[in-house]
Specification:
The chain is α+β, with helices and mostly antiparallel strands. The protein has helices at 7-10, 56-64, 110-115, 123-136, 152-164, 182-199, 210-216, 234-239, 244-249; strands at residues 14-23, 30-40, 45-49, 71-76, 79-83, 86-87, 95-98, 170-174, 202-207, 219-224, 227-232, 253-261, 264-267, 270-273, 282-288, 292-295, 304-313, 317-324, 327-334, 344-349, 355-358. The structure holds adenosine-5'-diphosphate and magnesium ion.
Length: 360
């Protein structure tokens, strides 16, 4: 049978069904996860993104077995791992987990750290797997080194190797790069994604960094207050966000409250067609800062007069703060564009990319 026809290639690796999780007492606790259902396909890398406290880590802890399921069901490769009152212990689950702080054992060598947790395997097999992973992670030279002698990026790869050592069906990474500095983060992230994709293990990565989520995930799942609010490809999330919250999560926007009249929405930045929306509907119009074009005054009839309050040079981009009839809006221009405080310009919104949401 070819791989494409085998059942495991067709059915999802991880299935979460209606998971709800509360901490604390029934009357005074917090609902950390609220009715979450999610499937991850074999070979898929899913990124869960959302603000701090929205329930991301709790979800991973439930899959790994560090937290008992209270409501709903978790299955991996067709095997139910946990339901309310029934739970496979973490060490019996085909799940590898990597934590934010790497959690390496300081008294074990690199090889010892990677071998840890494989005790159920024959010695020779364990050794072979450790050697294979040292090779994959470009750590062979460091097999006998101790974690504190390694760089952050190397420690990261040891932690990943340990998570992969038992050949899990699922890899769970919780904020995997937050302990690394900005410069290192990019290169390590690319390296880790390459290793994970090559391994073909279904992976769930949790991050609060939307850019990281877009870069790593085939699919990005956005959580807000314990719930999934949208799950889609990075492009769709950016271009067609399901809510103002999702739109703002992935980039800075200008927002205007408006009311639909005669199939149109009039905003301070011009008119938007809104066919199909009944007159009187209150809406929020959002326009990404990079979708605002700045022109010399009077160049285009649809542009509106603005005055530059100040601008900040950010290298690749320049962020411009503008006065629009007394209120403040922002634009993001290429970094080389020179804009001076006090300058009179006109602003035009790319109306076809403006986003319209129910007023909230
Ligand atoms: N062990 C715990 N006991 C009580 N409340 C917790 C515990 N762990 C997390 N919480 C609460 O549950 C919510 C979700 O937390 P968490 O899953 O850690 O979010 P995230 O990883 O998205 O930041 C938060 O309100 C947090 O304060
Ligand atoms: Mg967390």
């Amino acid at each position: 049978m070819t791989e494409a026809l085998s059942p495991s290639a067709l059915s999802p690796s991880v299935v979460l069904s209606s998971i709800t999780h509360r901490y604390g007492r029934a009357d005074s606790g917090v609902t950390a996860v609220d009715g979450v259902s999610l499937s991850v396909a074999p070979r898929e890398v899913v990124c869960i993104v959302g603000p701090s406290g929205c329930g991301k880590s709790t979800l991973l802890r439930l899959i790994s077995g560090l937290e008992a399921v209270q409501k709903g069901e978790i299955a991996v490769d067709g095997q139910v791992l946990a339901t309310a009152g029934r739970s496979l212990p973490p060490e019996k689950r085909p799940v590898g987990m990597m934590f934010q702080d790497f959690a390496l054992f300081p008294h074990l060598t690199v090889a010892g750290n990677i071998a840890f947790g494989q005790t159920d395997r024959p010695r020779a097999e364990r050794k072979r797997r450790v050697e294979e992973l040292l090779e994959t992670m470009a750590l062979a030279r460091y097999a006998n080194a101790y974690p504190h002698t390694l760089s952050g990026g190397q420690q990261q790869r040891v932690a990943l190797a340990r998570a992969m050592a038992r050949d899990p069906k699922v890899l769970l990474l919780d904020e995997p790069f937050s302990a690394l500095d900005e410069q290192l983060r990019r290169s390590v992230r690319e390296e880790v994604v390459r290793i994970i994709r090559a391994s073909g293990i279904a992976t769930v990565v949790v991050t609060h960094d939307p850019e990281e989520a877009m870069e790593m995930g085939n699919r990005v799942v956005v959580m807000e207050a314990g719930r999934i609010v949208q799950a889609d490809t990075p492009v769709t999330l950016y271009q067609r966000p399901a809510s103002s919250f999702v739109a703002r999560l992935f980039g800075e926007v200008n927002r205007f409250e408006a009311t639909v009249r005669d199939g149109q929405i009039v905003t301070p930045l011009g008119r938007i067609m809104a066919p199909g929306l009944p007159g009187g509907t209150k809406v929020e119009v959002a326009c990404r800062v990079e979708d605002l074009e700045l022109l010399p005054p009077g160049t285009r009839p649809d542009a509106v007069p603005v005055r530059v309050r100040h601008s900040s040079f950010l290298g690749p981009a320049t962020r411009v703060c503008l006065d629009l009839a007394g209120s403040e809006i922002h634009a993001r221009l290429p970094g080389h564009v020179d804009v001076r405080a006090g300058e009179e310009l006109s602003a035009a919104m790319a109306a076809e990319r403006a986003m319209v949401f129910p007023a909230g």
